[in-house]
């Protein structure tokens, strides 16, 4: 069954994490369009984005991603042992200085790959919950449209919400963690709330079916020489912004510093007026303080780039 939104959106997401869940690498998201309209005016993204005509993981993209991670590890003076499956996109491993690649045995992904033991399912459940919330927010606006940028924000939030305990438990299931090691059990995804919300949409499938409807969709492959040439030419001429994509995407509005400051003030007041337990209260206000600090830094940078004459009318 298709998702309950009318959109040409098709993305592939690659995830990676260490075995105790203390470090989740920034996801790589692959879409069909190199420069969608919703990216206009956007200068900072929550994750890495690349594109090709099928939104597939390819050897070129995997090589680029690995090289970026290797640079990060080198800067941090760290070494990494990375376990990967035998996907065709993983065949060409570049020269790496701080990462060692170990391939899992063939045909063992379902039993030895930790992400297949529940991490991906957990992530997809979180992501689908965000889609349901977006659909409900769009009630009255038919059809609901989700842009690449909105999907990117959802992916980032969903991955953040996958707990370290869940990741560690999946690694334990695959035998990476010894029984004697004390790492908390995985926390199951609570679907009751979203299930009741899902039922309000009156669609002919369950939420569980919606989470898994694309499990068998191809996410990786090898392009022919002709397909590579066509994709390159399309990117050069920006032909990826076709009619189908134009209909689904909208330019991101430019938010002024004054507007952002106003929104931040409103956000703080909203939570001040909300009843919360002490732990959640501390978490939220600590996060808001970090946002305030980031805003202050932007204000300082903008101020330092101005000349004294900019503040006076001549």
UniProtKB/TrEMBL annotation:
What the entry lists under InterPro entries is as follows: CenT-Element_Derived, DDE_SF_endonuclease_dom
The name under which this protein is listed is Tigger transposable element-derived protein 6
Q: Name one GO molecular function term.
A: DNA binding
Which is a Gene Ontology cellular component entry for this protein? Answer: nucleus
Source species of the chain: Schizaphis graminum
Describe the location of the DDE-1 domain by residue ranges.
Answer: 10-171
Gene for this chain: TIGD6_13
